[in-house]
Design goal:
The structure holds two protein chains of two kinds. By secondary structure, chain A is α/β, with parallel strands linked by helices. Chain A has 19 helices and ten strands. Chain A is 45% helix and 14% strand. In chain A, strands 1, 2, 3, 4, 7, 8 and 9 form a seven-stranded mixed β-sheet that branches. At the A-B interface, α1, α4, α11, α12 and β9 of A face α2, α5, α10 and α11 of B.
């Protein structure tokens, strides 16, 4: 599939390149009045909703039970990239695009740049702000205050660790990255077959989460056609050199994740920790059954002792697609799906989506769960607390595919080859800035 | 006189192992439960033989959508392969046996088309099809798959050798129409070549991923490749995914190659003679 992916990226970029420009400047549409909204919600309408959340029909039914005039057709058009590829082709063709779509946080600028998303402010989105954890709201907000989507699920990052291995080798749960590095050396010396952690060389998402935690500002949109790219500044180098150094030293592995050897390694205790997101605990329960009871959760180690900071990896939103004939109904659908207490609770307990709403993150019946896989620890509580510490300033570039592709070929490659990560960071910076300039962006630092 | 090179034999055996190992892994892995899949040695069976439970689950998960995908794939590939083989036979015969203006130029165009990867054409095809509302229908998969430049090339080469000009002349003298000659005389002699093209297109359509990925939005229309990829991405990465589907992806992949292997074994005789006949005079 990798092959197809590369081809797809090229095609997608070609498409993105030829679809820019020509449109009018976005202007804030006049807010829809309550009467307009009521009328739209009582008019028989069919919405198409693209999402890859399994069994989401149950949640959608809760919406149609409240608004019987509206029918929602749920389509699973693939998870992540395959869906985006389809969405772009459909938008380009002008037919076949859905009304509402599931979209990951990191892709919002990419799609809002091409004017593919509807600003939700006219449909009352601003009033929903306080229901969501702060950082998730800033993730869905545009440079001019637009609101592009409603947060659905999140992935604040923490550390899952093997209590049994820590006990066996006398390792304390590291509180800082310095302690983490020392523990990595100690563990690998004690047993050369075990690594304190694995930083996957193919996983840009986890790496971006690390940058996020360190307070890096790799990308920022500073105007309609100007961006900043800082992939090799001081903070970025600190993170890159830290991981590049540990991998080069051989005390941290860099195996590709979500592959057969990686699953095997998790099951056999090759890695004593997995630095992962809030969706990690449930995922691990399903894919490393043989290690049940041995894992615990903790926040990520910190760059400065005593601090409490985190990044995010993954999670998604519901957005409304430009060109929909029913923007009011679609916007209200997206709102209901992600703010209604019963629906969001169902997402968290049935589909194990990690919540984005403050109410649910404070809900005892969610945070108080004590899964056996984690020895009865209240894992949700740990990640709930972490969610409150995620930096609100982090931004994604409007050309994510390219940035990720270039990362794979520079920084990721340096992890896999144990080569110079510092030089790879410079290359990454160079490639991404060159690309942005070629696309007509003003690039600053 | 028999001469054997040990080195060559060992080399061939090594290659054999290299090619069969992934297949063997697939067979072994599809007999395991999700728990065993990653906690036991990958290349051997475990005590807990889970194959039949897995197969059962593959066909029942998501209201039995896998069976639907299998039928879709079968339908797309058989129709595409049959259609493509027929068109190639017609075209190849025409190129080989009829002299007309632009014959060699047109054939040059066909040869050039062999070089264009179908993946590169997927998005332009989508834009075209969306104009005539064929997107998200089975036609969107079948129509592009009917075109096989390589098959046409193969059939021309094959027809040149396999059809004797005197046979056609004899037909004409006896008063048969050109179509009659094609269907009654030519088609029969071309059979081995047709089977070759049939198998080529069958495999190509069976394995086609990018075109259906772009064209289809409705899971009910997916072929197996896109469906399995959807399951697979559902297991990996965030958003409430669990590892439960992993065993199904593996078993589903194993099942998806069984019909292809069966097709090859059944049509093997024709396939071999077709390939070699085409290769004598190029």
């Amino acid at each position: 599939m990798k092959r197809f992916k590369a081809a797809a990226v090229v095609l997608v970029l070609a498409l993105a390149a030829c679809s820019g420009g020509g449109d009018d400047e976005t202007t804030k549409a006049a807010p829809a009045s309550q009467a307009d909204i009521d009328k739209a919600m009582q008019t028989p309408t069919e919405l198409t909703f693209w999402t890859w959340v399994p069994d989401i029909q149950k949640e959608v039914d809760m919406f149609t039970a409240k608004y019987p005039a509206i029918k929602v057709k749920v389509v699973n058009a693939g998870q992540g990239e395959p869906q985006y590829t389809k969405l772009r082709t459909a938008l380009k063709a002008g037919t076949g695009a859905p009304d509402a779509v599931q979209i990951e946080f990191q892709y919002i600028p990419t799609f809002s740049l091409t004017k593919s998303l509807v600003d939700l402010r006219p449909y009352g989105a601003e009033a929903q702000k306080d229901k969501f954890v702060d950082w998730t709201w800033s993730q869905v907000s545009g440079a001019n205050g637009e609101i592009w989507a409603y947060p659905q699920d999140t992935g604040p990052m923490g550390m899952l660790y093997r209590q049994d291995l820590f006990d066996k080798y006398g390792i304390e749960v590291p509180k800082t990255w310095e302690e983490f590095a020392a523990a990595a050396r100690k563990l690998h010396t004690a047993d050369p077959k075990v690594y304190l952690t694995n930083l996957a060389s193919n996983q840009n998402g986890a790496y971006m989460g690390m940058l996020w935690q360190a307070g890096a500002k790799p990308f920022a949109t500073t105007g309609p056609e100007s961006v900043t790219v800082n992939l090799n500044d001081e903070v970025a180098k600190k993170v890159g050199d830290y991981w590049g150094g540990l991998i080069k030293e051989g005390v941290v592995s860099a195996d590709p994740d979500f592959t057969d050897p990686w699953y095997q390694a998790l099951n056999r205790g090759k890695y004593a920790t997995w630095l992962t997101a809030a969706w990690g605990p449930v995922f691990l329960t399903g894919s490393a059954k043989s290690t049940s009871g041995k894992w615990r959760a903790a926040p990520l180690p910190q760059w400065t002792a005593g601090e409490n900071k985190a990044g995010n990896w993954g999670g998604s939103t519901t957005a409304v697609v430009t060109g929909t004939k029913n923007p009011v109904a679609a916007a209200k659908f997206a709102e209901f799906l992600n703010t209604d207490p019963a629906v969001t609770k169902r997402f968290a307990t049935e589909q194990f989506l990690f919540p984005a709403t403050k109410a649910l993150l404070a809900d005892q019946s969610f945070t108080g769960l004590k899964p056996e896989f984690y020895g009865g620890q209240t894992v949700n509580q740990v990640f709930s607390d972490i969610s409150g510490t995620v930096d609100t300033q982090f931004q994604w570039p409007p050309f994510l595919d390219q940035a990720v592709n270039d990362w794979d070929e520079t920084v990721g490659k340096s992890f896999a080859d144990k080569s110079d990560t510092g030089a790879a960071l410079d290359q990454w910076q160079q490639r991404v800035s060159d690309y942005a300039k070629n696309q007509g962006f003003k690039v600053g630092q | 006189m028999k001469r054997r090179s040990n080195l060559l034999t060992i080399g061939m055996l090594a290659l054999l192992v290299y090619f069969l190992l992934p297949l063997f892994w697939l067979v072994v892995a599809s007999t395991k439960s999700t728990g065993d899949l990653f906690s036991s040695f990958g290349l051997w069976f475990t005590a807990d033989f889970h194959l039949f439970q897995n197969i059962g689950q593959v066909f029942t998960y998501g209201d039995g959508v896998y069976g639907r995908w299998l039928l879709n794939t079968l339908f797309y590939s058989v129709v595409s392969a049959g259609g493509a083989a027929f068109l190639c036979a017609l075209g190849g015969y025409g190129f080989a046996k009829f002299r007309f203006r632009g014959n060699s130029t047109l054939f040059g165009v066909v040869l050039a088309a062999v070089m264009v990867p179908t993946t590169a054409l997927a998005i332009p095809t989508y834009l075209l099809f969306s104009k005539i509302d064929l997107v998200n229908t089975p036609w969107a998969i079948i129509l592009p798959s009917l075109v096989s430049p390589f098959g046409l090339y193969l059939m021309r080469i094959y027809a040149q050798d396999a059809i004797d000009d005197s046979m056609i002349e004899a037909g004409r003298i006896d008063g048969a129409s050109e179509m009659g000659i094609f269907f009654k005389i030519v088609l029969r002699s071309l059979a081995p070549g047709i089977v070759t093209v049939l198998l080529f297109t069958l495999v190509a359509t069976w394995n086609n991923y990018f075109l259906p990925l772009i064209m289809l939005n409705d899971p009910e229309l997916y072929p197996i490749t896109v469906g399995l990829a959807a399951w697979s991405s559902q297991t990996a990465g965030g958003g409430g995914s669990t590892g439960d589907l992993l065993a199904l992806v593996v078993t589903g992949s194993m099942l998806s190659i069984v019909p292809l292997i069966a097709a090859f074994l059944l049509l093997q005789r024709y396939w071999q003679s077709g390939l070699s006949a085409g290769g004598v005079k190029g």
